[in-house]
Amino acid sequence: MWECERMRNGLFLLAAGFACSVLAGTATVKMAPGENWWGAANFFGAKMPFTEKTDLEIDLRRNNYHNQCASFLLSDRGRVVWADAQAKFTLKNGEIAVEAASDIVVEQGGASLPEAYRHAMRTWFPASGKMPDPLFFSAPQINTWIELTYHQNEKDILAYAQSMLDNGVPAGVLMIDDTWQAGYGDWRFEPTRFRDPKGMVDRLHGMGYKVMLWMCPYVGMDLPAFRRIAWGVNPDDVRGYPRKGGFFTVKGSKPARNGRIDAKPCLWWNGISAFLDFSHPNANAWFAETLDGLARDYGVDGFKLDGADLSAYLLDDRDASDPQATCGSLNNGYAAYALKYPFCEIRNLWRMQQMPVVVRLHDKPHTYEALRRIVADMIGAGLIGQPFICPDMVGGGEWTTFIPGSPFDPELFVRSAQIHALCPMMQFSASPWRVLDAEKQKIVRDTVALRQKFAPAIVALARKAAADGEPILRNLEYNYPGQGYAAVIDQFMMGTDLLVAPQMDKGAASRPVVVPPGTWKADDGTVVVGPKTITVQTPLARLPHFVKAN
To answer: CA-CA distance, 329 to 275, in Å (whole number)?
Structure first.
C-alpha cells in the first residue's frame, strides 16, 4: 500500500495510486514505472511525454516560456498534480519535485490520460460554454507582419488583403501588426502612412474581413500618456487621474519631491518602455479607454494582445501597486481585455483556461526542427486546457527569413501550410504569392481548399470544445488510451474522426503512420483497418490524412 509521509527535509513523497493535498510548500511525486506525463507549459511539447528519463526544470514562478502555462501535470495513469499558484517543477530521476506558494494537490483522477484531464478540467477549469468567433476557424487568418514589418501602411494592407482573395483564400480575420501606431503608448494610426484609417477599415470590412490591431502593454516614457498615467495628470490637457502611479516602480523607491513616480523602464524585444501595472486603476482606466476608442473611432473588431511575458512582470526588483500582485495576476489583468471584444488573440497566458479567446504558439523560426515542434506544442496546449490554439504563422514568424538573401526554404513553407490546414486555425503572414513559384503556389491554394472542405467540421469541433472542455487537437493517447501511443508526437487527431500525419522532414518521400483501431479512409482513397503502422508516400503536394468510417 502506498503511503504519504513527511520527509525529514519537509517534503512530501507522493507515490503512484495515492491522493492527497499538501499545504503550501514542496511536494515530491514519484513516477510509476512506464508512466507518462504532460502539462505545465506547452513550450515543452517536444519533450512530452515526461518520463522517468526526463531531466527538466520548468519554473512558472518566473517564466511562461513565451506561451500558455498552468501549474498542472497529468499522466496516462490518471494522476493529476495541481497548484493554484505559479509553481516550479523539477523532473529528474523518476521524480517530480513541486514548489508552490499554494496548496499542492495530487489526485487520482481516473485510470488514463483522458480521465485525468476530464477530472482536472471539471475541478479547476470547467468549460465556459463559449468559443471565439467561428470566423477564426472557418477561414484562414492573415497577418500583415511578415509582408510589411516596420512599414505598415494603408495602401499595402489593402493590396495584401485583396491578393489573398484573388488567390482563393476566403476573407476571414485580418490582423494589422506592430508599427501601425504612432508610438508605443501613442495608439493613433501613424498619419503619414495612414491617411484615412477609418476608410481603410471600412474597405476591409467591405471585402468581408474582420479587423484586429496589434497592441502591447508598454508606453514610451517621453509620451503624454506616460505623464498622464504615472503622474496622475496630463500637462497637455486638463485630464488626469485622481491617483499617481500605473507603471511598475523601482523596488523600494519613493516619489521625488515633484511628485513624479520613478517608473522602471522595461527592456523588451522592440524597445525600452515603461510597463503598465494592471493592478493599478490608472493603467486599467487608460488602457480600457484606449481600446474602446480604437473600436469606436475606427471600427476595428478586436486586438492582438502581444507581449506581457511572465518574466517581464517579475517583481524581484520592482513594485506593483498591489502588494499581493504576482506575475500571474498581472498577466491575467492584461489578458482580461481579450474578453471584451469579439475578435482577440493573446500569446502569453497564465492559466485562464477555457476562456473564449484565441491563443497562439510563440513565433517559430524557419527550420525543420521548429516545424516538427508545432504538432507537439499544440498537443501540449490542449492538455493544459487551451483548446482554441493557433499554430503561429505559416512558414514561421521571423520576418528576416523572407527577405532577399535569407535561408528561405519553399518546401518548408509548403509543409508548414499543410500542418496548419487541418489544425484548429490557419494563419498566413508571408504571402505565398510573393515567396513561392507557380507550382508551389498551386499546392498552397489546394491546401487552403482542403481546409475549406473541412471547415464546417472544424467549427463544429470548436463548438464542442466550448461545451465539453476537451481539446480540439489531440494526441492518439487521448483518444486511444493505454495502447502504446503516448510517444507519438508527429501526427495528431482532430476530435475523434480525423487523423492527420503531415510530412515534417526535408526531402522525405514517405513516412510511417500509426493508424489506431477502426476503419479509416485515406486522402488517396485507400482504406486501412487499424491498429497497424503503415508507410505512406508524401510527395510535396500531399498532406496524408484519414477519416474514420462511421
So the answer is: 15
More confident residue, 354 or 231: 354
In 475-509, DSSP assigns E strands to 492-494, 498-500
What pLDDT digit, counting tens, does each position of 99-118 carry?
999 999 999 999 999 999 99
Predicted pLDDT at 243: 62
Pinpoint the alpha helices (H) of 428-495. 432-435, 438-468, 476-479
Q: In Å, what is the CA distance from 241 to each residue of 204, 218, 223, 261, 321? A: 36, 19, 16, 14, 15
In angstroms, what CA-CA distances link 348 with 67, 91, 97, 345, 424? 5, 23, 25, 10, 18
Q: To which H or E segment does residue 117 belong?
A: helix 113-124
Instruction: Name the band, by pLDDT with cuts 50, 70 and 90, for residue 308.
Output: confident
Hunting for cell 494526441 — which residue is that? Answer: 475
Predicted local confidence at residue 537, as pLDDT: 98
- Alpha-carbon distance of 109 to 477, in angstroms, equals 16
Nearest to 141 by CA among 298, 280, 345: 345
| C-alpha Rg value of the chain to the nearest Å | 24
What are 378's three cell numbers? 499544440
Cα separation, 445 vs 10, whole angstroms: 60
CA angle 420, 304, 356 (to 5 degrees): 75
Distance CA 386, CA 389 (A): 7
> DSSP state, 305?
E
Helices and strands per DSSP (H, E), number in the chain: 13, 33
**What is the distance between the alpha carbons of residues 345 and 181, in angstroms, rounded to a whole number?**
18
Cell 505512406, residue located: 536
CA 443/CA 375 separation, integer angstroms: 21
Q: How confident is the model at residue 3 (pLDDT cuts 50, 70, 90)?
A: very low
| Cβ 136 vs Cβ 358: under 8 Å | yes
| Residues across the chain | 550
CA torsion through residues 388, 391, 393, 399, sign: positive
Phi, psi (rounded to 5 degrees) for 488: -80, 105
Region 318-341 average pLDDT: 87
Express each pLDDT in 266-294 by its tens digit: 777 777 888 888 988 889 999 999 999 99
DSSP 339: G
**Which residue, 324, 383, 331, is CA-closest to 352?**
331
* Rounded Cα–Cα distance for residues 29 and 81 (Å): 9
Would residue 64 be called left, alpha or beta, if left means φ above 0 and alpha means ψ between -120 and 50 degrees? alpha
State how far the Cα of 465 lies from the Cα of 474, in Å rounded to an integer: 12
How far is residue 41 from each of residues 125, 194, 351, measured CA to CA in Å?
16, 39, 10
b/e sequence 420-444, b meaning 16+ C-beta within 10 Å:
bbbbbbbbbbbbbbebbeeebbebb
- Contact between 346 and 331 (Cβ < 8 Å): no
